[in-house]
């Protein structure tokens, strides 16, 4: 049998992967091939020697030398600490330059910048300004109303005077028209009456003529 | 009681937790030290190799992908550090299939091992080339499969099996001599 076949058998035997046929072949070789049996025996001896190998105590050695990185940094060795410190310094500078202030009034703590008053102060300022503005507005309004009243009175007087003067003139003209109208009516009435009289005269004349012609007493009584 | 996993300890060690790294070392230092003893045959060299291995493991720790076991990855690193150790300190000894030169000096492993079988086995392994020695070490002492050994050594499984076969042939003779 070739060495390669024997290698395979020994390898599978060591890994406990022999099939039934291979196991039969393996056992046959162990019985009939002294060299193969010697190898199997050697492997068994080594395996047994490995299991029973004397356990030596590990000598003290420098384990720290194998730890090639630095220890985990402590909190005060934190790399961000200088950056945080510098940031805080910058913030402090900005606070100083910008006039940051803290006020404690009673139980109220207020923080802010000096250039910008807080809400209450703003409200007070606004109230004051509104009151001043209201007062000035009231004064101006009063003055305006007074002036308006005065002007209104002057306008009313002028209008009344105008109306009075214009009424007189119109009434005079109206009376003149009325007189003229009445006179015209009277003229017309006189003309009408004259015409009636004339007409009556004519009728009377006509009646007298007829009476003369006929001379009938009965007709005279009837008229 | 609730032992932390290797991956958990690795993550903490990567974040600079020295205690986690020491716990990981404590878990594997005995295996690595015994590996060093059998691979170098010398307690002093084994200690040096162990430190070199753990330094290399720490340096490469962030490259560890939890696709396989940490132990397998650890012994892969150990194998390459062992090759480097041989190249640096024992250039006269063969890495591949070149037989080890027979040394007449007293074996230093005799100074630390008192058990006869362990001593004989370690002494016999010192006569193997490095790659064969590594296969024996990983197969019998590390309890790895051939595929795992092949992956750790960067070889094909068939090559690993072939080297194991050759190693067994040599060890057979040496162990028989030991028993005489």
Automatic annotation (TrEMBL), chain A:
It comes from the Bacteria. This is Uncharacterized protein. It comes from Alteromonas aestuariivivens. The lineage of its organism: Bacteria, Pseudomonadati, Pseudomonadota, Gammaproteobacteria, Alteromonadales.
TrEMBL record, chain B:
One of its GO terms (biological process) is DNA-templated transcription initiation. One of its GO terms (molecular function) is sigma factor activity. Belongs to the sigma-70 factor family. ECF subfamily. Residues 119-171 form the RNA polymerase sigma factor 70 region 4 type domain. Residues 24-88 form the RNA polymerase sigma-70 region domain. Gene3D superfamilies: 1.10.1740.10, Winged helix-like DNA-binding domain superfamily/Winged helix DNA-binding domain. This is Sigma-70 family RNA polymerase sigma factor. It comes from the Bacteria. SUPFAM superfamilies: Sigma2 domain of RNA polymerase sigma factors (SSF88946), Sigma3 and sigma4 domains of RNA polymerase sigma factors (SSF88659). Keywords: DNA-binding, Sigma factor, Transcription, Transcription regulation. InterPro entries: RNA_pol_sigma-70-like (IPR039425), RNA_pol_sigma-70_dom (IPR014284), RNA_pol_sigma70_r2 (IPR007627), RNA_pol_sigma70_r4_t2 (IPR013249), RNA_pol_sigma_r2 (IPR013325), RNA_pol_sigma_r3/r4-like (IPR013324), WH-like_DNA-bd_sf (IPR036388). It holds the Pfam family Sigma70_r2.
